[in-house]
Amino acid sequence: MAALIYSSRKTRRTARTSIDKDSTYGVVYMGTPHQGGSGVQLGCILVNIASIFVPANDNILKHLERDSQWLQQQLSQYNPISGDFITKFAYETYETPTILGRKILVVPKASAVNLSQADAETIAIHADHINMIMANGAAEKIRSRWETGARVNGVRTRCHYIPLPKNHRFTGRTTVLEELRERLFIRRKCRKLALVGLGGVGKTQVALELAHWAKENQPDHSVFWVPVISDESFEQAYTELGRRLDVQINKNDDDPKESVRRHLESEGTGKWLLVVDNADDIKILDRHGGVGKYLPQNENGLILFTTRLRSVAVAAAGSDVVELLEMTPTEATSFFRKSLINESLLDDKGLRDELFEELTYLPLAIAQAAAFLNVTQLSVKKYLERLRRTEQSLINLMSQEFSDDGRYPESRNAVATTWLVSFDQIRRINSTAAELLCFLSCVERQDIPQSMLPEPPGEDVETAIDVLCEYAFLVRRGDDMFNMHRLVHIAIRVWVRNQNAVEETQSNAVRHLASIFPWDDEANRLLWREYLPHALYALRRSKEYEDEERSNLSYRCGTLLICGSTRRNTRLRCAYLDNRQIKEAIEIFEHVVAIRKKTLAEEDHDRLASEHELASAYLDNRQIKEAIEILEHIVAIEKKTLAEKDHDRLTSEHELASAYLDDGRLKEAIEIFEHVVAVRKTLAEEDHSRLTSEHELARAYLDNRQIKEAIEILEHIVAIEKKTLAEEDHDRLASEHELASAYLDNRQIKEAIEIFEHVVAIRKKTLAGEDHFRLTSEHGLASAYFNDGRIKEAIEIFERIVAIRKKTLAEEDHSRLTSEHGLASAYFDNGRIKEAIEIFKHVVAIRKKTLAEEDYSRLTSEHGLARAYLDDGRIKEAIEILEHVVAVKKTLAEEDRSRLASEHELARAYLDDARIKEAIEMLEHVVAVKMTLDMSSEDRAVSQDLLEQARGMLNLGSRRARRLIRWLTRRPHARRSHEG
């Protein structure tokens, strides 16, 4: 046996071996102890006795002990080549006498026979071990059995038919391959097994790898491969199979395939594996009209089906189904490397991973990309740019056919076309499912609610959905939500385009969405949040087609993307929806307005409504001038055409006042709000429109520093809403939030904290951790803690808010910058000057790019950065910024508190720079104005104390003055005088 093993290893290197594997026909084992022998222990005793007189070696006997590692190694090396020979195991049936007087079976049958080897047969020799080896009768019996075996073996000669070559680029899929081997060849738990998965996921290649593995590693099995892409491919494969098996065709049979089936079912054929590839039609398994009736049924046979359809898999193999998914990142990388000519394209891991994400780790898509890169020599970066350039560019790339020896000549290799046959098949078997496919090509591919799908009268939509799920074109996410594979989504659009049905499909989709799309009231909140992304997608895809349904759908979508005038317009206004997309709303409304300007009269209600919504979108996008221009136009028309008390007219006036407020035109805003509030006094006290206008008037009073008036209105609103609205109602919480902000502005810090803590507690129960409204209320609470001197608590909250908003909001987002500003201010008051400066510099840099020079938020951040520079000893930089801020704030009223705060800080900087006269001049102005204002004595004292100290510096030397001034300006009371 060892010689044969050696020969099998060396036969390609040399022909000079004592036993040539290729010329060996059979092997006879005469009582060979494959598992060790019972006589070994006796032999060891004799060796020990003999060693007293002569040198003796017991190594051979140790090799023959039971469970010998050496014996196991010999067997494991011989088993793979055993199928190349006829193997006979002879064993003794009588015990052999020993010199110690007892009899033993030297090599029992259990050790002499090893039936795990291919084509093995046992022969019982009626003799003891010694006589079995020496007896002529034993040799004659073996010769007789050998001749009989040779005749039988002639029938059982192995045969292989695998028309596709081994794929040398195959990689990975280890888990699936191990499961297939385990089920079919090791545990032998099933005779039929189905491999199911999406088209292009690599089912054929996995089955091919298994087939070639079986050919090389299962010597007792023949391996056959039958593609069932079509009836012709099946018939062709069976014809070739019959030829190779030398099947005698029964002339009485009308169908030669029947003769092949009977041959495979015959006992003499031996063991076999049959791969039935591409069984993608349930009719294939039909035992009456399909190819199913030609598939053999045999205890020695194994069948592996590959299919895209779960129904086929279950019909073919019952519960013995293995699902094949997309590649893992490691598998994708290895496969891509083997497919590329220039492996350096893999060097950039980031780009490589981006590419695999775009291709959804689908093997066919990766192979197609590699083929394209091999031909064009493009870089991965350039290929990605082409993929992302336009949809047409993506479709063109995904539609390019490429050569692949591992696939059938008649199959489509391009990703975008590999599913077209299935789409046509679906259209034949279920027209409703085909209509759903067309509709799905016009909406987003993820989070598709079943309630949104079209339901033709009299049609079974559930069955249609089941068909699409069966092909894996839809994947269920819960009971009534679905996802679609990204590349399948592209392929459907190619299919629709090939039918010249793009315009009809998109028009039908928009018409259906317009008919079911809900209005934006709270009761429909869940529905419109689910439908909105799909409606927007449909609108984007149908820009070149215009009709009334599209215009109506656009209008409804736009109203959901912005903060409409019917909602509470507080400082929280910029995020009524978590997923608002203001820029998209503007694009939609600009389009709707352009259409309605052409088709409707100037005073038409629908035209004015769409113009109003466009203005609201402009407001939310801080395009305040554009919003004002539109709203002034609307108000002018409605003043001519509508009564003073008309709801639409008051709504437009309300929105114009809000725009004036955002533009800093406080007097005009207040004038309009006061008018609207006065007119709406005729409405019930709890009327939503009335409360909304009162709320906005309070906000205008706050911005105009009419804090007492603002608090009075807000206390009234909160009192009413406590009676009429639930504790967790959004509007009630918004009003309470605004009242807390007013208390904070009025230095009623304890009252502000009490309300903020209540609002935060409610919103923690009802809103997610990253929700905009919850974060805004937490920001208000942090600001209140900050003003109350509870700096560490403020920092803890600010840090959490900033961390979340960095993940969820753009760098230039107003809310994110406001929170970063708050955190920087808290760090400053906590003595963490360097950290404060770092954040302030970032905020100022962003706001300089995005906001006007006079914008309040920008000026506030510049003021904060200057203060931090001042405390860090960077006096010149602080003065430069503060002089700019003060110059810009000259446009504000002399008594404006933010203006006074900046002037105070500039005076402090002048003192630090020993510019005492300029500091005194500035402080005298600040103190004089503060004396006329209703403010706490502490607020006045900060500037008065600094002024007195500055005056005392005039008679000191400059060096002593600087030391004293720095000590004075670093005192805690000085640090508290800044903008919140």
Care to describe what's here?
With 980 residues, the chain is of the alpha/beta class. Among the domains are: 2-155, no CATH class; 160-323, Rossmann fold, CATH 3.40.50; 329-398; 419-555, Arc Repressor Mutant, subunit A; 709-714 and 728-788. The protein has 44 helices and 14 strands. The strands form 4 sheets. The chain has a 6-stranded parallel sheet with strand order 6-8-9-10-7-11, sandwiched between helices. The longest helix has 20 residues, at 136-155. The chain starts with a helix and ends in a 5-residue tail after the last helix. It holds the Pfam family TPR_12. GO terms for molecular function: ADP binding. InterPro entries: NB-ARC, NLR-like, P-loop_NTPase, TPR-like_helical_dom_sf, TPR_rpt. Residues 174-341 form the NB-ARC domain. This is NB-ARC domain-containing protein.
Question: How do you describe this structure in short?
Answer:
Residues 174-341 form the NB-ARC domain. The chain is α/β, with parallel strands linked by helices and 980 residues long. The chain contains 44 helices and 14 strands.
Q: Output the CATH class name of the domain at 160-323.
A: Alpha Beta
Helix-and-strand structural type: alpha/beta
Return the CATH topology of the domain at 160-323.
Rossmann fold
Low-confidence stretches: 5-19, 49-54, 147-155, 563-580, 971-980
| Number of alpha- plus pi-helical segments | 44
What is the makeup of the main sheet? 6 strands, parallel
CATH architecture of the domain at 160-323: 3-Layer(aba) Sandwich
Widest β-sheet, arrangement of strands: 6-8-9-10-7-11
Anisotropy-based shape: elongated
- Please give the alpha-carbon distance between the first and last residues: 92 Å
Number of strands: 14
CATH superfamily of the domain at 160-323: P-loop containing nucleotide triphosphate hydrolases
Overall pLDDT confidence: 81
Overall radius of gyration: 43 Å
What fraction of the residues are assigned to beta strands by DSSP? 5-15%
Helix content: 55-70%
Protein name: NB-ARC domain-containing protein
Organism: Xylaria bambusicola
Domain NB-ARC: 174-341
InterPro entries: NB-ARC (IPR002182), NLR-like (IPR053137), P-loop_NTPase (IPR027417), TPR-like_helical_dom_sf (IPR011990), TPR_rpt (IPR019734)
